Amino acid sequence: MHPELNNVHEHMRELGVAALAHANWHANYHSWENDKWYELSVLQAAHAAEILIKARIAQEHPLLIFDKIPRSTQVESGSLDFQALVQNAKTIQYSDLPERLWATTGIKIPNLELYKSFGALRNSIQHFAVPGSFGCGTIDFIYKVIDPFINECWNLFAVDYNEDHEAYTYLIENLVRNKAKFLVSPECVSSLSFVTYEWDDDIAYRKEMNKRFRAAGYEGNDL
Predict the structure, then answer these.
(1) Three-state SS at 68
(2) Which pLDDT belongs to residue 37?
(3) Has residue 124 got a pLDDT over 90?
(4) Rounded (10°) CA dihedral 131, 132, 137, 141
C-alpha cells in the first residue's frame, strides 16, 4: 500500500469529528445574524457521519471506501498512488455506506431508518432548500446515530465535540430540553453541576440521564 494511504483513516476521523463539532454548534444554538443554522446543521451532521463511517471502513483498508478504483492504464506510476485515487477513484455514496460498513467490519449503523431518512432530509435541503417533513432532526441524528457509532468504534462521545467556548453547559441544557438521550463522557462530568436542567415531566428520561451521569463518574445528588 502506498505510504500516503497508511494513516488516511486517522485524518478522516479527525475531519469527521470536526464536522460533528460544527453540527452540534449549529443544531443546539441560535444566531441572530444567520437564519440558516438549522439547515447547515443537517448538512454538517450528514457529512460528519459519512466521513466517520468511511474512516472506520478505511481502518480495515483504505481502498474499501471506494466504489470504483483506477485501472492500471489510468495510473502513470508503476503502482496505485494517492494522486491517482484523488483524480480517478469514486468513493461509496452515503446510502451504500451501511452495507459496506457491515461487510467490512461487522458493525451495523445504529437506527438505520433514521440514518436513511436524515439522508433524504440532507438531499432535500442541499438540492431544493425545502426541508419538508421527514420526521427527524439534527439533534436526533447526532445522538441516536453518530453518538453510539463513534462510541462503539473509538470510545468517543458526541457531547465532547462542540464549538462553544463553554464546552458543555449550554449544550447539555439544550439536549435535556430536547430530551436527547446522549452518552455522557467522563470529560463533561465536572460541568454537570453548572447546568440548569429543564426536565419537564418526563420522569423516565430524567432517571435514565441521572443513571448515565453516575456511570460516567458524577458523585453528587441526582440532578
Answers:
(1) strand
(2) 86
(3) no
(4) -80
Exposed, middle or buried: residue 93 (CB in 10 Å: 0-12, 13-18, 19+)? exposed
Cell numbers found for residue 150: 463513534
pLDDT tens string 171-221: 999 999 999 999 999 999 999 999 999 998 899 999 999 999 999 999 988
DSSP code per residue over 83-109: HHHHHH-EEPPGGGHHHHHHHHH----
Residue 172 and residue 192: Cα distance in Å, rounded? 8
Residue 23 CA to residue 138 CA, distance in Å, equals 8
The dihedral region occupied by 129, where left means phi > 0, alpha psi between -120 and 50, and beta the remainder, is: left
Q: State the Cα–Cα distance between residues 167 and 113, nearest whole angstrom.
A: 30
* Half-sphere exposure of residue 199: CA atoms within 13 angstroms, side-chain side: 12
Query: Is residue 17 within 8 Å of residue 48, measured between CB atoms?
Result: yes
Can you give the pLDDT at residue 28? 93
Q: Grid coordinates in use for 40?
A: 447547515
Query: Which candidate, 42, 7, 20, 8, places its Cα nearest to that of 159?
Result: 20
Q: Which three cell numbers stand for residue 5?
A: 494511504
Q: Mean of the pLDDT values across residues 76-83?
A: 61
